[in-house]
Design goal:
single chain; alpha/beta; TIM Barrel; 8-stranded parallel beta sheet; 10 helices; 8 strands; about 40% helix; binds zinc ion
Length: about 250
Amino acid sequence: MFIDTHCHLTNEYQDGIDAITQRAEKAGVGIFICATAEGIDIEPALKLAELHDNIFVTTGIHPDHTDLNPSDFLTDKILNHPKVIGVGEIGLDYHYNSETRKAQIELFEKQLDIAYKHNMPVAIHTRDADEDTVAILTDKHKGVMHCFTSSWDLAKIMLDRGFYFSASGILTFKNAESIRETFAKIPVDRIVIETDSPYCAPVPYRGKVCEPAFVIETAKVLAQIKKLQIEELESILSENTQRLYPKCHVKL
Ligand SMILES: [Zn+2]
């Protein structure tokens, strides 16, 4: 069974969560880690996780939302919830919001401190901000580079720090040769997969609303890159996910 390690299940999906998870399960995707990004999506994500055994949650505030105070949302009560398995997505994004750099760094550092205090892994978003991301993260942090599209140079640094790397639908894009080359070099025991749905639909679904069932397309490309049978890859990725997120304990 595959695990979609990063999907935004609280976003609007036309036909509702049950249809989404049923299609995923039919495709062989049975566990979902619902990432939050906006503060207000945390409570709805927890509700989903309480209703569904196979939905887990990471709680965090994305760098787009520098107006929010993380201590309002990442409370002890929320982080101690049995289905909250990590802090994310958090990080830096200078692609669209370079004017908020200072506030982004402050928000990121606050959330890293909270994660560290709770001994929780972090799911990192970094876009056009690799230098600062590397400088702010230290050896004491652990977690995953979500939707990893950065260079092998960054991968090397984060590998040395014990991080995991999440392959998204972007791995399937025609023009993503350099990302495929990077994933070819990353040891397979440090890789997990995600859709980042509803964004980033893989080939052959580009232009459609992405959903967790589509993570299979990323798995197929990764299996080719790693020269593994899909079943072998499936069990390696599941074990990796459970090492990365120890609170995500489900029978596989
Ligand atoms: Zn995301």
